[in-house]
Design brief:
Oligomer: single chain
Strand order of the largest sheet: 2-1-3-7-6-5-4
Radius of gyration: 35 Å
Number of helices: 10
Shape: rod-shaped
CATH class of the largest domain: Alpha Beta
Number of strands: 7
Length: about 350
């Protein structure tokens, strides 16, 4: 099985929906809070669970890689990891504070990657953040905010020792691929809601609550786009540049992740356009209904103006007015009123104002 086939097999496994309430896997004996997992892999096989203080003993060992997963670590834990692997001070500062923009930074022979995670919580998109330190013989992932554990990624990698033997950059690919795959359920969920709003627009006029939801979805999609788009550059750099320790055979896998990110970006842009069109269509329908109502009111006002004018004239209290003594004047005036009103009504009906 080739490396590309292994990546495709991983991709075909549907990731479970992310849930902020999902419990973390229990920490290994001796690991303190904040450490999700810490293990050493050699030739793609997991050989030992370690404590953070022993990680430096395995750094740089041939065909071995240390994979440490952290969740919202405190500063003391980050400093300990920094001392074990010689991580750059600026990268540690970024990892200690969330709300970083997705990016890739190179510090000597190591790279630092920031990626944003996203999942649906009820009707709202919630965002998390993952910081990845990747260097020769080690990978350290630091998660902030609501997101799912990367324990599933670890299990998938361990199930493919031949692929995992490619080392730290394969682990980096697996995590980025997992993050991007989990964008899809978010986009699909919003897509379903957008379709429902479109169908409702065709059946009936959207109410205030629906309009507010349109604005909320557009704002959420903009935030999601801001999280997704920078990953295109991150993956593209892995695809084309000779980053520290990068295996050329992995370029195809990062190219595949790049394609997935771009597809997510296109879906987001399409949904935002559809939402904009739905909102504009709602306004146009509302304006059309108002125009139709205004025409009806104007038509009836014109029809009612005839008897009002005639009644107003003959309601004046003058002794000398023509036709006051006419025997059939009342019936003639009623007939005139009915005739003129009928003609106006037919005219407005023909013009489709009534």
């Amino acid at each position: 099985m080739t490396l590309q086939e292994t990546g495709d097999r991983h991709k075909n496994k549907t990731a479970p929906p992310m849930d902020s309430d999902q419990p973390e896997p229990p920490a290994k004996p001796g690991n303190r809070p904040g450490v999700v997992a810490a293990a050493v892999y050699e030739h793609g096989q997991r050989i030992l669970d370690i404590e953070i203080k022993d990680a430096h003993k395995w750094k740089g060992r041939d065909k071995a890689v240390v994979w440490i997963g952290l969740h919202e670590p405190d500063e003391g834990l980050l400093r300990e990891v920094q001392a074990e692997f010689g991580l750059h001070e600026l990268a540690i500062e970024d990892a200690g504070h969330a709300h970083q923009r997705p990016k890739l930074e190179i510090y000597g022979d190591a790279i630092f990657v920031v990626a944003r995670t996203a999942h649906m919580m009820g009707e709202e998109i919630v965002f998390g953040e993952t910081h990845l330190f990747v260097g020769r013989g080690y990978v350290v992932s630091v998660r902030h905010g609501p997101s799912t554990s990367y324990n599933l990624v670890r299990q998938r990698c361990e199930a493919s020792p031949a692929a995992l033997a490619h080392g730290e950059n394969y682990i980096l690919y697996s995590i980025l691929d997992f993050i991007v795959d989990n964008y899809m359920p978010v986009v699909e969920g919003i897509h379903a809601e957008v379709e429902e709003l479109e169908e409702r627009l065709l059946r009936e006029r959207l109410d205030k609550k629906d309009i507010e939801r349109l604005y909320f979805l557009r704002r959420s999609l903009l935030r999601l786009r801001n999280a997704v788009v920078p990953l295109v550059d991150v993956c593209r750099r892995h695809e084309h540049l000779d980053l520290p320790g990068m295996d050329a055979t992995l370029h195809a896998l990062f190219r595949d992740v790049t394609d997935h990110v771009r597809r997510v970006q296109e879906d987001i842009d399409t949904l935002r356009e559809v939402l904009a069109f739905t909102f504009e269509a709602s306004l146009m329908i509302g304006q059309s209904e108002q125009t139709e109502i205004s025409r009806k009111l104007a038509s009836w006002a014109a029809i009612l103006a005839v008897p009002t004018a005639i009644a107003g004239i003959y309601g004046m209290n003058f002794d000398e007015m023509p036709e006051l003594k006419f025997k059939y004047g009342y019936f003639v005036i009623l007939g005139l009123i009915l005739f003129v009103c009928s003609m106006l009504y037919r005219m407005f009906r023909r013009a489709k104002w009534l």
